[in-house]
Write a structure and sequence with these properties.
By secondary structure, the protein is an alpha+beta fold. The protein has a single domain, classed as Alpha-Beta Complex (L-2-Hydroxyisocaproate Dehydrogenase, Chain A, domain 2), CATH 3.90.110.10. The protein contains 4 helices and 3 strands, in the order αααβββα. The longest helix has 21 residues.
Length: 110
């Protein structure tokens, strides 16, 4: 449980960590590398499992919202949303996050 908590926190702080190590650099490098990997998976039909914002229609118990989840990317784009088994605590955190996004979407009227 502690290992997962450390990973979650490191993910949250990842952009700042990259900037710290680059000193004069930018946090744009990691997102750029991720986009390159996604485009390559689609163009070369790699069927690669990658984290991606996908529109959920019941997966993970969430409907009508784009959420970052593992997906299989290939020539057709998102070919499959991969549902991994979450602990009750992880599911609660995901639900809380999705709820916050839904609330924000409602406020801005999208």
């Amino acid at each position: 449980a502690q290992t997962i908590e450390r990973l979650v926190q490191r993910t949250r702080d990842g952009g700042a960590e990259i900037v710290k190590y680059l000193k004069t650099g930018s946090a744009y490098y990691a997102p750029s590398a991720a986009v390159t990997e996604m485009v390559e998976a689609i163009l070369k039909d790699k069927k690669k499992i990658l984290p991606c914002a996908a529109y959920l229609e019941g997966e993970y118990g969430i409907n009508g919202l784009f959420v970052g989840v593992p997906v299989k990317l290939g020539a057709k784009g998102i070919e499959q949303i991969i549902e991994i088994k979450l602990t009750p605590d992880e599911q609660e955190q995901l639900n809380r996050s999705a709820g916050a996004v839904k609330e924000l979407v409602g406020v801005i009227g999208v």
